[in-house]
Design brief:
single chain; alpha+beta; Ribosomal Protein S5, domain 2; Alpha-Beta Plaits; 2 domains; binds 4-diphosphocytidyl-2-C-methyl-D-erythritol; binds adenosine-5'-triphosphate; 4-diphosphocytidyl-2-C-methyl-D-erythritol kinase; EC 2.7.1.148
């Protein structure tokens, strides 16, 4: 039997950091939503008791460094599974981009192995396992739109954002999430108003959603990589209603309502940035089915 799972990317509509915790993490308040740019994960049982990662993308590790591998290992150890699995990863999400590609692959493996090995675990149990792998994995287990608090693992479902188009542009640099958090100076941040963003989603108010986007990590990454600011300026010039860096970056996203405008921004950016995508927000949990 071969099993397929979709692993969509996320963007952060709002990302606030409240304080640095005694452990190595920061207390965050994030509004996250899934977008229609997905890796495809294929799980096949193996006779041998091993985890095998197969991917044609040269940036994707094929050993324990892969978050998908770590997810399979965790399930095997926790539930004493003596069977093996081959995990084929067809990568569409840019790597080290701030789009949670690795986390979403790990979440897809958790969902998929739950089916493959008939474990009958709830989404909450899968999210709890995911948290042992990374802060974004719990959100990716559910998908949709959510408020993520704690270090990112406490998830409260939010309404689907008003329909719109998302233009993603990833400069050809990779960013270390850890380095960005380390460089954040909490005495000098402009906090987004998370409650007003949540209200905008509850009201289905596109203009207010655009007005409320914000990410405290954006100035940190922009300081290190000028490309982020340059892409933001281009997106605004070409007519995006709102422009923000996702996660720790360096990917920048722009929001628009009309498809034609999304393509105008795409065409304008193509000469400047190699990786540009025009996609839709998914934003509801059923989009994973
Ligand atoms: C930037 C975001 O992607 C936004 O969604 C997340 O906050 C980061 O999620 P992630 O990549 O799953 O992060 P993890 O793999 O758990 O952590 C990587 C590193 O980022 C830093 N980190 C991460 C999450 C958090 N709330 N505080 C932190 O300070 C820590 O130094 C940690 O060692
Ligand atoms: N399945 C995977 N897909 C992509 N990268 C992976 C995977 N597993 C591990 N990695 C490693 O993780 C690093 C970060 O990649 P990833 O694409 O997950 O970053 P990201 O989108 O910035 O994550 P986040 O938004 O959660 O911070 C890469 O440098 C890569 O070596």
């Amino acid at each position: 039997m071969r099993l397929l799972e979709k692993a969509p990317a996320k963007i952060n509509l709002a990302l606030d950091v409240l304080y640095k915790r005694p452990d190595e993490y920061h207390e965050v308040e994030m509004v996250m939503t899934t977008v229609d740019l997905s890796d495809r994960i294929e799980l096949s049982p193996l006779r041998e008791d091993e985890i095998r990662i197969v991917s044609e993308n040269r940036f994707v590790p094929n050993d324990q460094r892969n978050l998908a591998y770590q997810a399979a290992q965790l399930v095997k150890n926790t539930y004493q599974i003596r069977e093996g699995v081959e995990i084929f990863i067809e990568k569409q999400i840019p790597v080290a981009a701030g789009l949670a590609g690795g986390s979403s692959d790990a979440a897809a493996v958790l969902r998929g192995l739950n089916r493959l090995w008939d474990l009958e675990l709830t989404a909450e149990q899968l999210a709890e396992l995911g948290t042992q792998i990374g802060s974004d994995v719990a959100f990716c287990v559910y998908g949709g739109t959510a408020l993520a608090t704690g270090r990112g693992e406490q998830i409260r479902e939010l309404p689907t954002p008003p329909p719109c188009w998302v233009v993603l542009a990833k400069p050809s640099i990779g960013v270390s999430t850890q380095a960005i958090y380390q460089n954040l100076n909490l005495n000098d941040v402009q906090h987004p108003d998370t409650q007003k963003m949540i209200q905008a989603l509850e009201d289905g108010d596109y203009n207010e959603m655009c007005a409320r986007i914000g990410n405290v990590l954006e100035p940190v990454t922009s300081q290190l990589h000028a490309e982020v600011g340059q892409i933001k300026n281009h997106m605004k010039e070409f007519g995006a209603d709102a422009v923000l860096m996702s996660g720790s970056g360096p990917t920048v996203f722009g929001l628009v309502q009309q498809e034609s405008r999304a393509h105008r921004i795409y065409n304008g950016l193509r000469g400047f940035c190699e990786e540009v995508y025009v996609i839709r927000m998914l934003g509801n949990r059923h989009a994973l089915d």
